[in-house]
Automatic annotation (TrEMBL):
<dbReference type="Pfam" id="PF14539">
    <property type="entry name" value="DUF4442"/>
</dbReference>
<dbReference type="InterPro" id="IPR029069">
    <property type="entry name" value="HotDog_dom_sf"/>
</dbReference>
<protein>
    <submittedName>
        <fullName>DUF4442 domain-containing protein</fullName>
    </submittedName>
</protein>
<dbReference type="InterPro" id="IPR027961">
    <property type="entry name" value="DUF4442"/>
</dbReference>
Amino acid sequence: MLKLWKSFGGNDVGRWLVSKIVCFNAPYFSSIKPRFAEIKPGLVEVKLKKRRAVQNHIKTVHAIAMCNAAELAGGVCLDVSLNGNFRWIPVGMTVQYLKMAKTDLRAVCKVDDFHWDSAQDVVMPVSVFDTNGEEVFHADITMRISPKKK
């Protein structure tokens, strides 16, 4: 994933391509049509447009669409930060709906200490911001890290 981003993530077309490839491998995320803005160990940013398909009955971005963006940002962040000998799977998510999401959004997962070298559960924090820079949603996603099967 990181190699793909380093090769193609430098322009709009490349970021679109990386987003499409990720959604091809994990098709459920296609429902929110995400666009990666940044991918590096310890930091992933995903953009999400407010459009009819992700709105609820009061015309704000639906909570589950924000959960999807958060899981995508947290999962990719862990994936590009984790030693290649390990795999991961989400095992829990705690969310807070802080404000109505009335604009396009960006989900940011940032972890400063990401040098995991043993099987464990880690919490990936994801903040979702509106176009005014206000946090409208927060998720703490518990991910289980385990050794890859040989």
